[in-house]
Amino acid sequence: MKILVTGGTGYIGSHTVVELQQQGFEVVIVDNLSNSQAGVVDSIKKITGIRPHFEQFDLANSDKTSEFFRRHYDIKGVIHFAAFKAVGESVEKPLLYYRNNLVSLMNILDSMIANNVQNLVFSSSCTVYGQPDELPVSENAPIKKAESPYGNTKQISEEILQDTIRSSKIQTIALRYFNPIGAHETALIGELPLGIPNNLVPFITQTAIGLRQQLSVFGDNYNTPDGTAIRDYIHVVDLAKAHVVAVTRMIEDKMKEPFEVFNLGTGNGYSVLDVIKSFEKVSGQKLNYKIVDRRAGDVEKVWADSTFSNEELGWKASKELDEMTASAWKWEKAYRAKVSQ
Ligand code: NAD
Ligand code: WQD
Asked: Which residues, in sequence order, are bridge partners of residue 273?
């Protein structure tokens, strides 16, 4: 059973490739390496014993995408991770984000239709909910006006998918991720942000290892128990496993609608200070941080209602916050040791 994983050398994609291979799927990766490294393919082989087929090209190139699908006409499903994801950069360069994220999706859909490939799992985001009116936030909550061009690409993508489904045989599961963190237990794959990290956990681990001087905590005057903002952090391996469940559900014809949406979170909210405390506990290190002003565009609190995904997918996140921060720390140490050799 052959599955195309776009963005498969990236952070969430690489962990998903491992889980797919371990469940017996044959995986083909397409990635242009705009935000990842070819060496990830070797690391995947070290973990699973199987080297996934890898092709490097830009999915925003329609000729290359259709040529690829013509050769791989026996693909049974596509898990589409490939996208740009830096919120701040998307504000600076909106057209780059719209072009990359939307054109890639449309090229893939064209090729799926042309080659009768029917199953698509799409990487969406909790960012579509903005600051929800009710917490925990369920899949039925209203979509709020996007805070950034990046967030807007996820909203528009979901709309493109719904429209395409109405006029073709394609069926889609959109997975709305909350905050994926952590790394594979082997520490052979993990998150590899280019340059200065935007996200909390890579900033914490890079500060602890000495690459950054100090973590800035963005705001301690939110309406939360300790004043810092709350998120639903989910271990990337739990997230990866949900993709295997989703693609299997499609292939086994178990979908109830041709377009289904699931939240992927733990259902628990943790503050920035909770994450720092967890990191300090598992690493045995004090973290150098200071409280600064709020970051523009940040929501105060969001966590998932995961009832629907737990019941309907039969999937549940199992890893606790300490396991998430410990695996992120193990990965940071292993990666820095490797690159300094
Ligand atoms: P990532 O940057 O690590 O992985 C994305 C991969 O896609 C990279 O390897 C990149 O090189 C590749 N890529 C980008 N554009 C491409 C193109 N045009 N052609 C071919 N390859 C291309 O990001 P990630 O954290 O693994 O995120 C995966 C998906 O999940 C993205 O769609 C992202 O928007 C979504 N998502 C991520 C998060 C998060 O916090 N990490 C949260 C919600 C949703
Ligand atoms: C988490 C918390 C920050 C860095 C982003 C995207 C979202 C989704 C997931 C893709 C917040 C605080 C952070 C720092 C801090 N991605 N923080 N100091 O903003 O919840 O979500 O990634 O779809 O769309 O917006 O994640 O990790 O950046 O921040 O205090 O140096 O940590 O203010 O409260 P965020 P994050």
From this structure: none
At the topology level, CATH places domain 2-181+234-264 in: Rossmann fold (3.40.50)
Q: What is the pLDDT of residues 234-269, one digit of tens each?
A: 999 999 999 999 999 999 999 999 999 999 999 999
Average pLDDT over residues 73-82: 98
Cα(140)–Cα(138) distance, integer angstroms: 5
Which ligand approaches the C-alpha of residue 270 most closely?
2
> pTM value?
0.99
- pLDDT band with cut points at 50, 70 and 90 for residue 165: very high
Ligand 2: nearest atom to the Cα of 218: 30
Q: Once rounded to an integer, what is the mean pLDDT over residues 264-289?
A: 98
**Known catalytic residues?**
150
Looking at ligand 2, which atom is closest to the CA of residue 125? Answer: 23
Ordered by start, the domain boundaries in the chain are: 2-181+234-264
DSSP 113-182: HHTT--EEEEEEEGGGG-S-SSSSBPTTSPPPPPSSHHHHHHHHHHHHHHHHHHTSS-EEEEEEE-EEE-
**DSSP annotation of 301:** B
Spacing, Cα 49 to ligand 2 middle (Å): 34
pLDDT digits (tens, 9 = 90+) for 121-131: 999 999 999 99
pLDDT number for residue 341:
80
How many A from CA of 169 to the centre of ligand 2? 36
Judge if the beta carbon of residue 300 lies within 6 A of ligand 2: no
User: Residue 192: CB within 6 Å of ligand 1?
Assistant: no
> Does any ligand 1 atom lie closer than 6 A to the CB of residue 31?
yes
